[in-house]
Amino acid sequence: MGRSIRVLVADDELELRLALAELLSHEDDLELVGMAADADEAIDLAIRARPDVALLDVKMPAGGGARASREILRTSPATRIVALSAHEDRATILEMFRAGAVGYLIKGAHGSEIVQSIQQVARGGTSLSAEVVDSLVSELSSQLQREERATLDREDRERTIRRYVQGEGRHIVFQPIVDLRTHAVVGAEALSRFEDPQGRPPDRVFADATAVDLALELETAAIRDAIAAVDRLPEGAYLSINCSHRTAMWPGLRAMLRPVAPRIVIEITEHQAVEDYDALTAHLEQLREDGARLAIDDAGAGFASLRHALRLAPDIIKADMSIVRGIDGDDGRRALASALVSFAGQMGMTIVAEGVETERELETLLSIGVTHGQGYLLAMPGPLPLPTRAATAHEAG
């Protein structure tokens, strides 16, 4: 007859420990080497007894079965861990398996199932209660369904983005950028618009393009369409194009922009974090050598935009609409805008306020030294041609 399987039992319920001890005493090939009421006792016993199998309660005091499993396996790596639990929730099951368990029994299992489980794991196998198997199968089925839905959703998004790249369901509108003192149109921002089946706004569409690895294709398609219209802008007006930092570093962008570079302002957006400012600066310098200018979009909306302003030394800083909206009645917004104006003045940059919607906002912006802006008060985005001078709602009325 072979050597008995040496078993450690750890559970904070005395009745269960005694019941398991009684069960093991009737099996010739199983030997109880110790009982513990918490994780600390279980770890100490395992160090001394080096059991072949440890039955561990997942919820016992002093760290539970997961802690006990890790410590026992660290000092007695040959010990096989079987988890004992009053339920079969997925999180607990996975926690025990990550800690090194090779078996999982639900408390209340028949004695023969417990014995068989001990014998099976001692031989190098694994053992799961039927309830645990059902739970894992259900979870796996749900996970596969989620993954299938995610795959189908990604494929649908990719098909939609590819249609936009090809020009289907996508067009460009232009929003005038205005000298706030004279209302002369000095430039226009090219904005992509989409006939999206799910009604997603443009920023979501571009985010989806990034998620399906088509951001470069969509951005360059939009830029190509925008610059094709540059000659239709008012004389002397510039064209502002939105561009993520990765598209700005695309080798083909310089050739695309070179013929119209002196009329182009490149707005660096925040679709992705900038990993290498030195590389980005080098690419932007080439574009600026050709005559293009640089703007930082959404300044003041987050730390990233301010970091862009410090690292990239733009020609234009666009104050985010979150600063402009209600600036006439908010001391904090006025203070932040004033700080941007001061910074821009010292650095030789121009401030463009985004999202100007009321006369009082316009008056406040002028009073703190903001000279340029865009927004529904000044002019709505629309097709070309643009007016040479924008009228406020007050003047239009």
Characterise the protein shown here.
This protein has two domains: 5-128, Response regulator (Rossmann fold, 3-Layer(aba) Sandwich); 153-396, EAL domain (TIM Barrel, Alpha-Beta Barrel). Helix content is 46%, strand content 20%. It has helices at 14-25, 39-49, 64-75, 90-99, 111-122, 130-165, 202-211, 215-227, 245-248, 252-257, 277-289, 303-312, 321-324, 331-347, 359-367, 393-396, and strands spanning 5-10, 30-36, 53-57, 80-85, 103-106, 127-128, 170-179, 185-194, 238-243, 264-268, 293-299, 316-319, 350-353, 372-373. The chain has an eight-stranded mixed β-barrel with strand order 7-8-9-10-11-12-13-14, surrounded by five helices. Strands 2-1-3-4-5-6 form a six-stranded parallel β-sheet, sandwiched between helices. It is elongated.
How do you describe this structure in short?
The chain is α/β, with parallel strands linked by helices.
What is the level 1 CATH name of the largest domain?
Alpha Beta
Tertiary shape: elongated
Described by strand count, sense and barrel closure, the largest sheet is: 8 strands, mixed, barrel
Number of helices: 16
